[in-house]
Amino acid sequence: MTTTSAPASERLTRQVSQRVSQSVFDGSRLRVVLLVDVHDGAQQQFLEAYEQLCNQVASVPGHVSDQLCQSIENPSQWLITSEWESAPPFLAWVNSEEHVQMVEPLHSCVRDTRSLRFHVVRETGGPAEATPAKRRLQASPRIGDGVIRHALTFTVKPGSEAAVAKILADYASPEPRVDDTTRLCRTSLFMHGNRVVRAIEVRGDLLTALRHVARQPEVRAVEEAINPYLEQERDLDDPESARVFFTRAALPAVHHVTAEQEDPQAERHALYYPARPGCGMRLAELLARQDEAAAGSPYSPVLRSTIFQRDDVVVRLIDVRGGLDAADPVLALGLPDPGPATKLTTLLDEAADADLPRLLGLARMDFVTDRRSPEA
Predict the structure, then answer these.
(1) Considering the chain, what is the average pLDDT of its residues?
(2) 95 pLDDT above the threshold of 70
(3) What average pLDDT does this structure show over 316-345?
(4) Does residue 125 carry a pLDDT above 90?
(5) CA distances from 85 to 97, 219, 252 (A)
């Protein structure tokens, strides 16, 4: 399981930067809400599966407590809430193979689930003398930019990279309007060796957008076309097979920062940072801190940066002024001073002895396609 750089109890909540619209590295406590719709007649089976899961999750580092609630109006509707010391230990658990196996008994008795994650910003009760810092509450809320960012990653069979890239680059774009409140804004695809990363930006509801995309004929045709090349087999006609595949493929955004500058000529690039075993979250946090520090510098070529992380896969999606080839490799890698540059190489699984220009070349992902919807 991926470890964090320091126990949550040792980290105090900082003043929220207005340039950072999303981050899991605040140190504040996390509340997770899971809405569950249980099959008719499966309530007892669901309750038994939850009891088993509850006993297992109690020993997960960073877990504080959880509650299971049943609707007073509809017995098929359930609510699971859990509290965590901070977001990183929860993400390390929920993105692990251990979690995939742990929740499998639940899925046989539920129609639908919806997971929501929240930092605790304010609360009532508790010791009167406790300060927000001691309770690890955020000093101020994030403003955000109205965009939700998410990515999927998977690997294809070695030797099939060119064929897969052609399939992923040539498909027709799906309808961007999902409903009155949700819209697809941008889809960016990159490859690094046989690893594919598909990043999407959505205004509105992410889950609604993902389901909308999955139903589009042009997208379904692409998914079927790349099936023979996937290292992890899947059957899209089997809901459980599809669920497990996309659960393992999820690559959550853990940090987004903007320099609050616009440049219509800025180029989108992606960098892949393979972390040493167990160092993925620490590497993502290092990059997040450096991106936040660089966002206020007029010399940084990076206008926006989103960091995605799951286990030991870390991807940084950046909009670069003047292009990546012309950028200072230190600044492009997200390392404005030599100290973090040295630390970065200790966290990488490969190329630890490479100089920074070569390291930038090794991290650079191959461009496949970048599509913006009208009015995005």
Answers:
(1) 87
(2) yes
(3) 82
(4) no
(5) 21, 39, 19
Cα 258 to Cα 291: distance, rounded to the nearest angstrom: 9
Residue 26 has pLDDT above 80, yes or no: yes
Stretch (H or E) spanning 212: helix 206-215
The first and second tokens of residue 142, run together, are 């994030």
Computed on alpha carbons and rounded to an integer, the radius of gyration of the chain in Å comes to: 21
Residue with tokens 């079927």, as numbered in its chain? 224
Q: In what order do the strands lie in the sheet with 77-84?
A: 63-70, 77-84, 30-38, 110-119
- Give the C-alpha separation, 240 to 108, whole Å: 9
Strand ranges inside the chain, DSSP E: 20-23, 30-38, 63-70, 77-84, 110-119, 148-155, 183-192, 195-203, 250-258, 267-274, 302-310, 313-320, 366-372
- β-strands 267-274, 250-258: how paired? unpaired
Q: Residue 134: which pLDDT band, with cuts at 50, 70 and 90?
A: low
**Encoded tokens for 186:** 């941008």
